[in-house]
Amino acid sequence: MDTPDHDSLVTLRDVDALRHRVRSWKKAGLSVALVPTMGALHRGHIELMERAHAMADRVIATVFVNPTQFGPNEDFAAYPRKEAQDFDLLDKAGVHVLFAPTPSAMYPPGFATSVRLSGLSDVLCGPLRPGHFDGVATVVTKLFLQAQPDIALFGEKDFQQLAVIKRFTMDLNIPVDVIGVPTVREADGLAMSSRNAYLSVGERAQAPALYAAIIAAARDIAKGTDPFVATDAARRAILAAGFRSIDYVEARTSDTLASLGPGQCSGRVFAAAYLGRARLIDNVEIES
Ligand code: AMP
């Protein structure tokens, strides 16, 4: 019998075991939070766990490096995997279950289904990472149906992903409350990310320029600068700081991700750029 206090963390790898556990919690009247991740956990992830803990009686963290959200030339093989260290961090954070399925448990032979969104998936990272958001939407739909949580928490660091997840959850009437959590940053402003591990010492020193540039653009837009002018200045600042190339720096609304035109200042500034072999993304709110 589960007690309301934290027992030690349990790792589950198959869906039946997860379902069984969640059923017993629900029978006992306990609420359940889900926090999906790809592991290599950092303080940003742990913030999500702590918020989940404050909002629900039981917390499930998932660690699954989802192959279907990586393109053929992306970093699936190189993506950092640190399950033992992740386990300790999750245990300390009071998480109850670590769900870490194998790829074949998630995608058995013959798997043929995909959740695809139009609109929100067609801008920013969408065209640059074909199939990425379909992979995210499909795996998160599966995790929602497998765990059947009351709430699920996602970081604003991946703001487009959060918007996509909110959209399909509403469109498909999935009874999960999707909650966004503000980005956790290093002291110098760099958004925490598992991919920051790819940065050399020199690149790590250059990396905060991305955040500095989009913060400056957001401030200028709030003061009335044309969003195209402000984001163009940000692009130049990012390249001047040593970034190799820029995928985008754009000002868009927070709900539909529509481009901001001259005189519009309600939304966020989004950026994606390469520093060495790391593709860094970030976004900030325009506080007007
Ligand atoms: P990932 O393991 O990168 O797929 O991230 C798992 C979850 O943690 C996603 O909802 C991310 O948006 C969130 N996340 C990643 N980095 C941060 C951060 N620096 N601050 C807040 N949430 C984050």
Written account of the structure:
By secondary structure, the chain is an alpha/beta fold. Helix content is 37%, strand content 18%. It has 10 helices and 9 strands. Helix 7 (159-171) links the parallel strand 5 and strand 6 (177-181). Helix 6 packs across helix 7 (159-171) and helix 9 runs antiparallel to helix 10 (227-240). The chain starts with 9 loop residues before the first strand and ends with a strand. Mean pLDDT is 96; it is low at 1-5.
Task: Give keywords.
single chain, about 290 residues, alpha/beta, 6-stranded parallel beta sheet, 3-stranded antiparallel beta sheet, 10 helices, about 35% helix, globular, disordered N terminus, binds adenosine monophosphate
Write the layout of secondary structure elements.
Layout: E1 10-12, H1 15-27, E2 32-37, H2 43-55, E3 58-63, H3 83-92, E4 97-99, H4 103-106, H5 125-128, H6 132-147, E5 151-155, H7 159-171, E6 177-181, H8 201-206, H9 209-222, H10 227-240, E7 245-252, E8 268-275, E9 278-285
Parallel strand pairs: 1-4, 2-3, 2-5, 3-4, 5-6
Antiparallel strand pairs: 7-8, 8-9
Bound molecules: adenosine monophosphate.
Adenosine monophosphate binds next to helix 2 and strand 5.
